[in-house]
Specification:
This protein has 20 helices and 18 strands. The protein is of the alpha/beta class and 533 residues long. The chain has 4 domains: 95 residues, Winged helix-like DNA-binding domain superfamily/Winged helix DNA-binding domain (Arc Repressor Mutant, subunit A, Orthogonal Bundle), CATH 1.10.10.10; 145 residues, Serine Threonine Protein Phosphatase 5, Tetratricopeptide repeat, CATH 1.25.40.10; 113 residues, 3-Layer(aba) Sandwich (Rossmann fold), CATH 3.40.50.620; 136 residues, Rossmann fold (3-Layer(aba) Sandwich), CATH 3.40.50. Strand 1 and strand 2 form a beta hairpin. The radius of gyration is 25 Å and the shape is globular.
């Protein structure tokens, strides 16, 4: 049986399109399919299906529609009861959206020609506007916007792959109507500028930039992003870097991830998180004077050797002195580390606060810091991170998104119902909008999920997570991580990474989209809490 939502809702069984019943049953199935393989509570289903017009016997009505839908799907047992609600169980091959996401993930690691072919296969799964026959349903607008964003992002990725393969002239004709359809998408504008320039049409490429700037200033009051401004300057000076290379370009140099631990034994989990993010790893031990420096250094060299056998470039260092954190900070700066991972289960972290040796290091490194509570978790599943509203610190989300991309999985943003003034529906819309922001910037699949405030809500939203990422403010060094956050880490099924942002400005694109997020129809209220204190 094949379920299709990338177009009008369809269920096909052995070549026969099934009759799904009335509009309420079709809406119920579509709603469950957009949350495939996840339990959707009865309360959420009632809220989404009837909005504010739920009948007095809404639960009985829901049960009736579930029963009718099961009969329509027979003999399939895909629709199952799982407290506190219902779930559709489907494989990648049974749901077009999951198949699309799998192909898109595969394209991310393929050479340009193969990536373009794979993305074409993914885009061929679309049969028209997603859920186009259900656009009038209360839940549909948010889901349709999310799915349309997925489609355009995949299209942009395919065009990037075609540009890398040198198909410039043929792309101009495709990009011009796309830019007209999506006038504020700078990535499409940049692709059109590059395709025009490579086709010998410099003046037209510069005219696209002028039109983009006028549109952004006129509609959003914003200048083009730094990357688009740099592209204009590169076109003006005929930068040879704009031309395609005959040979495959080498992978860009990436800065380092620095790992700090008191012992070598817990590094496997740290490495599982660090390896996908950067080309080089730096492994550091901060030693007490009682520890044998020669033995510790030998242990680290053995680990470096084993890493290099796996194809991972690594540097190692062990410091013992009056102030080992100071030396380690200098080492991190010399090697341009932009993420510091700390084994938070070691004695480097006592009572949720950094030890004296670690405190010196944290004071000196200008990069993001991740404190990892190590445990063996699922080998698959999404990366999950709480979202705290418009004024949220985006550092944790950016790192979570990078990890999700590296793991080739999705990113789940957890919003909460902590603000009574906001209301559940507005909170849900804000969360969905934030999910689109992240998806637009980093180009990965996002899964917004509204959960009750507090520890249990976060744990419920992260029960199938591969990794849980929680943001920390700078105050944690004096106030500690917080008992609720620590209890979340203890109760989670997966490793928990606490992220303290470096204080740097988030990526320019993220900042601009955050402004847009906060300006939509009054639905946002500063200070919406994540429920993780």
């Amino acid at each position: 049986m094949e379920f299709r939502i990338l177009g009008p809702l369809e269920v096909v069984d052995r070549g026969r399109t099934l009759a799904l019943g009335g509009p309420r049953q079709r809406a119920l199935l579509a709603l469950l399919l957009t949350r495939a393989n996840r339990v959707v509570s009865r309360d959420e289903l009632i809220d989404e299906l009837w909005d504010e017009d739920a009948p007095d016997g809404a639960r009985n009505a829901l049960q009736y529609h579930v029963s009718r839908l099961r009969k329509a799907l027979a003999p399939s047992d895909a629709l199952v009861t799982r407290e506190p609600g219902y779930m559709i169980r489907v494989s990648d091959e049974e749901l077009d959206l999951l198949r699309f996401e799998r192909l898109r993930a595969a394209a991310g690691t393929a050479p340009a020609d193969e990536a373009a072919r794979t993305l074409r296969r993914a885009l061929d799964l679309w049969r028209g506007p997603p859920l186009g026959d259900l656009a009038h349903e209360p839940f549909a607008q948010t889901e349709i916007a999310r799915l349309e964003e997925l489609h355009v992002t995949a299209l942009e990725q395919r065009i990037d792959a075609d540009l890398e393969s040198g198909r410039d002239a043929e792309l101009v004709a495709e990009l011009e109507p796309l830019v007209h359809e999506h006038p504020l998408r700078e990535r499409l504008r940049a692709q059109l500028m590059l395709a025009l320039y490579r086709s010998g049409r410099q003046a037209e490429a510069l005219d696209v930039y002028r039109q983009t700037r006028e549109a952004l200033i006129g509609q959003l009051g914003l200048e083009p992003s730094r990357s688009l401004q740099e592209l204009e300057r590169a076109i003006l000076r005929h930068d040879p870097g704009l031309l395609p290379d005959d040979d495959a370009a080498p992978a860009p140099e990436r800065s380092a991830v620095m790992i700090v631990a008191d012992a070598v034994s817990p590094l496997d989990v740290l490495l599982a998180i660090a390896e996908p993010l950067r080309r080089e790893l730096i492994i550091v031990r901060l030693l007490d004077e009682a520890v044998n420096l020669r033995t510790a250094t030998a242990d680290l060299r053995d680990r470096r050797h084993s890493l290099r056998e796996r194809g991972v470039s690594a540097r190692v260092a062990a410091y013992v002195a009056g102030n080992p954190g100071d030396e380690a900070a200098r080492f991190a700066a010399e090697h341009h580390a932009d993420l510091l991972l700390v084994d938070a289960t070691s004695d480097l972290l006592a009572d949720g606060r950094p030890s004296r040796r670690l405190d010196v290091l944290l004071e000196r490194v200008p990069c993001d810091v991740g404190l990892l509570v190590s445990k063996t978790g699922p080998a698959s599943g999404p990366v999950v991170t709480p979202f705290g509203g418009v004024e949220h610190d985006w550092s944790a989300i950016e790192i979570a998104a990078r990890l999700a991309g590296a793991f080739r999985t999705s990113l789940r943003l957890l919003g909460t119902e902590a603000d009574p003034a906001l209301g559940r529906r507005d909170a849900s819309r804000l969360l969905a909008r934030a999910s689109l922001v992240v998806q637009q910037v980093v180009g990965i699949v996002t899964e917004p999920m509204l959960v009750p405030a507090g520890r249990e809500g976060v744990l419920d939203g992260a029960r199938d997570a591969r990794l849980l990422v929680i943001g920390l403010s700078e105050r944690w060094r004096t106030e500690g991580i917080g008992s609720t956050r620590l209890s979340v880490a203890e109760g989670a099924n997966a490793p928990t990474l606490f992220v303290r942002g470096s204080g740097r400005t988030p990526s320019e694109t993220m900042t601009r989209f955050t402004w847009t997020l906060g300006s939509q129809d009054g639905a946002t209220r500063p200070g919406q809490e994540t429920g993780v204190e």
